[in-house]
Amino acid sequence: MASRLNPYIGFGGNAREAMEFYKEVFGGTLVLNTFGDFGDKEAPNANNIMHGQLETDSGYTIMGADSGPAEEYKPSDTISVSLSGDDADELRGYWEKLSSGGTVAVPLEKQMWGDEFGMCADRFGITWMVNIVAAQQA
C-alpha cells in the first residue's frame, strides 16, 4: 500500500453523528468501532466512537473518533480540511451540504486568484475550505 495523508478529526462525544453526516455528504463506506467493541461494554463511554473511517466514492479517506476516557476534548481551530479540484458540480455539492447548518466564513465565490473559494465551519465546528480551480483559457 502506498503512503497517504488524510484528516483524523477529534470529537467530544458526537463522532458517530459527525461521521454519518460526512457519509451523507461524500458517500462511501463508513466503519465505526466503539470503545465498547474493544473493552468494557458497560463503561460510560462504551458507545462512543474509538475509531471511525469513511472511504468515499471520490477516493477520500476521513477518520474520526471521540475523545478517550482519559482525554480532555479540546476543540482547535489550528487545522482545516481542504477540498479542491476542477469538478465544480461535485465540489459545490459538498459545499452546500457542509455549510448547511454551519457557519460560512467566506462565501463560495470567485476570488482574486481566479478560482472559486469558500470557507465554512460545519455544524460540528470543523473548518472546511473548498477551492474550485478556474477553467484554463486556451
UniProtKB/TrEMBL annotation:
SUPFAM superfamilies: Glyoxalase/Bleomycin resistance protein/Dihydroxybiphenyl dioxygenase. It comes from the Bacteria. Pfam families: 3-dmu-9_3-mt. This is PhnB protein. Residues 6-130 form the PhnB-like domain.
